[in-house]
Amino acid sequence: MDVNGSSAIISGGASGLGEATARELARAGATVVIADLNEERGKAVADELGGVFARTDVSDDAQVQAAVDAAVATGKPLRVLVNSAGIGWAERTVNRNGEPHNPATYRKVIEVNLIGTFNLMRIGAAAVAKTEPVDADGQRGVCVNTASVAALEGQTGQLAYSASKGGIVGMTVPAARDLAAVGIRVNTICPGIIDTPIYGFSANADEFKAKLVAPVVFPKRMGRADEFAHLVHSLIQNDYMNAEVIRFDGGIRFQPK
Ligand SMILES: NC(=O)c1ccc[n+]([C@@H]2O[C@H](COP(=O)([O-])OP(=O)(O)OC[C@H]3O[C@@H](n4cnc5c(N)ncnc54)[C@H](O)[C@@H]3O)[C@@H](O)[C@H]2O)c1
């Protein structure tokens, strides 16, 4: 599917993987709607790309509905939903002091990463379903979700994060089956270690990143956000890609720690 002349919502579009995706899709002619909590960065990116910023907490149904309404209000048919908003969290099931995982932090990660993805997928798809098909197959749009290789081989302390991302992986096939009825494809990317602000900017961050890169097979470095954006765009462009979960990780296989 060609995104030129369509609108595209990118949750988490104010930073990292979402921002790179917004840039890629805008370059290809899409009107981008940046749905993010970060108002300052989100507005700056949207203004630069000639798009729209919608301040959105993806875990809040009404705010996601407002972001979808903003995309429809651009007058360009909404055809692309990219879920990239997400938060990390590290906490053990039972910590070193013998205390069980805090249920509030577990819930928070599930709310943002999993329910947030569910929200944009369902509310966005309901709007995409109202557009005219773009081709002889009856296609109307594409949804691309962002999980993580932690969904498949979570490390120690990744219980909440892996559960949230594993939920996104698990939704992929049934969502693609449901949304086939309205001509929407659904794919999920599982990134490995991609260089974004999620790892912070301190000297410690550099040390941390070097440790993370050690098990990458090839090329021996972190992935780049523009390489992720390229994959999102390819998945949108290639009409036969559907219901797929794709590792994007330079061959990394996570060790327990
Ligand atoms: N960078 C990596 O190595 C990596 C690896 C695997 C998975 N991921 C996933 O990719 C996605 C993007 O990560 P990133 O590295 O670009 O991180 P990032 O921190 O650079 O960007 C995440 C964006 O999401 C936004 N956000 C957070 N909570 C939100 C909420 N409740 N509602 C709306 N927006 C919210 C933030 O404001 C931020 O702009 C996340 O889901 C992350 O879990 C990243």
SSE blueprint:
Elements: E1 7-11, H1 16-27, E2 31-36, H2 39-48, E3 52-55, H3 61-73, E4 78-83, H4 103-128, E5 141-146, H5 150-153, H6 159-179, E6 184-191, H7 203-213, H8 225-237, E7 245-248
Parallel strand pairs: 1-2, 1-4, 2-3, 4-5, 5-6, 6-7
Helix pairs in contact: 1-8, 3-4, 4-6
Bound molecules: nicotinamide-adenine-dinucleotide.
Write out the strand line-up for the largest beta sheet, numbering strands in chain order.
3-2-1-4-5-6-7
- Gyration radius over CA: 18 Å
Question: Could you name the ranges where pLDDT drops below 50 across 5 or more consecutive residues?
Answer: none
Bound molecules: nicotinamide-adenine-dinucleotide
CATH architecture: 3-Layer(aba) Sandwich
Largest β-sheet summary: 7 strands, parallel
Please give the share of residues in helix.
40-55%
Give the end-to-end Cα distance, rounded to a whole number of Å: 40 Å
CATH superfamily caption: NAD(P)-binding Rossmann-like Domain
How many DSSP-defined strands? 7
CATH class: Alpha Beta
Give the structural class.
Answer: alpha/beta
- The CATH topology is given as Rossmann fold
Give helix and strand order, one letter per element, not per position.
EHEHEHEHEHHEHHE
Query: What is the count of helical runs?
Result: 8
Shape: globular
